Amino acid sequence: MSRDLQYTDNGKLRHFLTIEDLRKETLEQILSTADKFTQFGQREIKKLPLLRGHTVVNLFFENSSRTRTTFEIAAKRLSADVINLNPDTSSTSKGETLLDTVDILEAMHTDLFIIRHAKSGVAELIAQHVPDHVHIINAGDGQHAHPTQAMLDMFTIRQYKGSFHELRVTIVGDILHSRVARSQIHALNSLGVHEIRVVAPNSLLPAQIERLGVHTYTDLLQGLDGVDVIIMLRLQKERMHNAYIPSEQEYFNLYGLTTDSLAAAADDAIIMHPGPINRGLEISSEVADGPRSVILPQVTNGIAVRMAVMAMTLGGASDV
Amino acid sequence: MTKKIDVEVSTLLDKLATELTPLLPNNPLIIGIHTGGSWLAEILHHRLAINEACGSLDISFYRDDFSRIGLNPQVKASDLPRDVSERQILLVDDVLHTGRTIRAAMNEIFDYGRPASIKLCVLVERNGRELPIQADYCGMNLELRPEQHVKLSGPENLSLLIEDSKS
Asked: Chain B contact for A29, CB < 8 A?
């Protein structure tokens, strides 16, 4: 269903909601377009005129300064006009009021909405609602998807590792609550990595996650054995009401990435984290700030990747 | 229908290289527009024996029809020196038609800095201008019908083709 929603009739990317139903060529085009955008960060004038006259609204029902800021910078680099809104989530808990908010902003000639919401499926709901000339990018919905984060991670992996085919990638941590992990797994599968592993205590592994084509481990060292890319996830403490882990100290002892546990991975393995980092909970400061960490390059790459997705959704006609 | 124009591209380039020689004391920066213009820029760069590498420009991000036709999926990265300020720029393209590509190229160059001057060198100047842009150096002139297009094929054995979009 979202495939029909994400593409126009002639095969152009219309909305960017989830990696799941996108063609591999679309993912590759996002990466190659983002590649071209990275060079403009070096130039005297960092702006491109592509989205001049377009209005982009960052509609963040759930807070996130990092994602919102990189979307804002990306839109501004493309010369769009950007408006940031953080509607009070308590007053928009009903579907009707949510769509009312969208209608009002659309009446002000918004061309592109960047949506973040704590409930899964909100970006898709809005995409179904808006007229043809309005575009939606999902900036994270509940525990469902965070597709631009996944694409900036793919961009970073390709930047450091060249190609995907030989790679073994391990995702460690709170897989159960992570929309990032879900989007990453779909993207890694589509781009054809050799192996995907997930490592977590049983309480933080979703049921039947193997059906997504991943190998599951409950032992960190086994899961890291020989891998090329390690993605650490943030332990979502705000969702930890139900005793998923016995204690933070024990979690760090068993699943925290330290210089010792890192030794199990390949010598040139890179370490990624979508942020924000809980230092000393899922990753030690020594590793997070160490030479193999690419956590800050991930943030920088987020700008170019989000520029690519915006340009591809807002550009006209068929381009595939 | 495609028809080859009976003219040696290398002869046209000889003529252009001779005309461009007086620019050399100004230390010109040669910039080719992707794709055909970049091939020609490389050749002229070699014939004029300029040391500094030439730049290349993909104007996809500056096109004025982005809202209508979207992003070119094959867009290449532009490759210009960090600073073009106060440089004498020689912009090279294969065909000057509407003038829109040159406008886009000039807009992009100005985002790298403020050049001292820009001169335009094209292999073929044809009718159909939509903007007040003319070439300073041109290999040959062609009068064509609106549905006809000139294309430079290459990069090996450069030759000029006329395509008829009606057929």
From this structure: yes
